[in-house]
Amino acid sequence: MSNIKAWMVSLRLRTLPLALSTIFMGSIIAAWQNNFNSGVLLWAAITTLFLQVLSNLANDYGDAKSGADNENRVGPQRMIQQGVISMKQMKTAMVICVLLSLISGITLLFKAFNELQWQQLLFFILGIAAIAAAIRYTVGSNPYGYRGLGDMYVFIFFGLLGVAGTWFLHTNTWQWHVLLPASTIGLFSAGVLNLNNIRDIDSDRQSNKITLVVRMGKKAASWYHLFLIASGWITMLVFVALFDDVSNFWPLFLTLPLFIRNIIVVFKNKEADKLDVELRNLAVSTLLFVLLSGVKLFF
């Protein structure tokens, strides 16, 4: 395998639609309220992509160092595990991503706020927290991803902070109801992580990587998956019902069969490796869900 191809695999490009869903959802809600800032959309998307890539690289680095990535692992092979990319090279790539995310994040803050304000300091601190969380998921002496806390991280950073934070950067105001669609994206994102952990349950258990799925078992994890997807739909529909006409959002329902199919596959699945494609499918379905929620902006 060429070095370029190895790095492309390590970047895990298929995870990027999920990261963009966060930014697009917050931006669409802001646009509904006539508070759209194109500069915020651009730089928030760039920053989020850098953070997602950082998280992916850190995950490879941490799992390789802990031994979680081994010959028993199901799913795509990791480049450190195969010896194509060294630990030192991966660590260097992580540092580069941290620097790039800081540069783009600071640019985002100046695009969002006309002058230096306390909000800039708050979002800078949140940005540092996001960088730390991306790394600490599997890296360090006590990574929280090995203690069943990954789902909470995904819900908070991909959902609550990601969507609501993007909306705030557009509007410079706060309204609590934005946490409803933010929860939707957080729940769908946790669903993607849950699929990943169901796929890896056996190798994670053997390597003492205690994910939430390892704690609850595959059967309970399947019902948990149903809960995540169903709750995501419910929170979005509640938001629409409270603040708009549900009939304006009929395009959203075009994605419902995709989510239902995903749930059915999880319950029927007998071979862990067959779930790998469902991670991509759910990420793309989430992005499509978000984009269709913005159709009303054009009518």
From TrEMBL:
Transferase in keyword set: yes
**Is Transferase set as a keyword in this record?**
yes
Q: Which InterPro entries match?
A: MenA, UbiA_prenyltransferase, UbiA_sf, UBIAD1
Instruction: Note the superkingdom of the native organism.
Output: Bacteria
Among Gene3D superfamilies, the record links this protein to: UbiA prenyltransferase
Topology class, membrane = Multi-pass membrane protein
Compartmental location: Cell membrane; Membrane
- Recite the UniProt keywords alphabetically: Cell membrane, Membrane, Menaquinone biosynthesis, Transferase, Transmembrane, Transmembrane helix
* Pathway(s) annotated for this protein in UniProt: Quinol/quinone metabolism; menaquinone biosynthesis; menaquinol from 1,4-dihydroxy-2-naphthoate: step 1/2
Bilayer-spanning residue ranges: 40-58, 93-113, 119-139, 151-170, 176-195, 223-243, 249-267, 279-298
Q: Which GO terms describe its cellular component?
A: plasma membrane
What EC number(s) has UniProt assigned to this enzyme? 2.5.1.74
The record's principal subcellular location, in a coarse class, is membrane
Q: Among the record's GO biological process terms, what is one?
A: vitamin K biosynthetic process
Instruction: Tell me the function of this protein.
Output: Conversion of 1,4-dihydroxy-2-naphthoate (DHNA) to demethylmenaquinone (DMK).
Kindly provide the name given to this protein in its UniProt entry: 1,4-dihydroxy-2-naphthoate octaprenyltransferase
Give the source lineage, highest ranks first: Bacteria, Pseudomonadati, Bacteroidota, Bacteroidia, Marinilabiliales
Per UniProt, what is the name of the gene that codes for the protein in this document? menA
